[in-house]
Amino acid sequence: MKKILIIEDDVQMRSMLSEVLQRNNYDVYEAQDGKIGEEICKKVDFDLVVTDIIMPNQEGLETIMILRHYHPKLKIIAMSGGGNAGPDVYLEMASELGADKMLAKPFLQKEILGAIKEVLA
User: Fold this and answer.
1) What is the total count of domains within the chain?
2) What are the angstrom distances between the C-alpha of 109 and each of 25, 86, 98, 102, 113?
3) What gap in Å lies between CA 16 and CA 12, rounded to an integer?
4) Residue 83 domain boundaries
5) Contact status, residue 47 vs residue 70, Cβ threshold 8 Å
């Protein structure tokens, strides 16, 4: 079973993603910000991290840089609603920092599942 870490500060979004992924036979872990996600990654070997970009404590771009440094082969999907700037700017930066796939929020369940399948293939 593939292990996926969801890093998302919005409780409802994190819970929905976790539920969808568990129903699709993924072993899911959760973190409410990048700092906690980084700490979990020190203890568990994940196949994939799905991270939001705009979060308190440690945002997603910094988290992607740290994860890429310590886990260069780890697959990463970045997602963002973009705040005031819109998602494109943040998702482009995530791509440049090494995210394997980017998703603009809101997205459909089939879109996240398709992105995960593609990245893990």
Assistant:
1) 1
2) 14, 21, 23, 14, 6
3) 6
4) 3-120
5) no
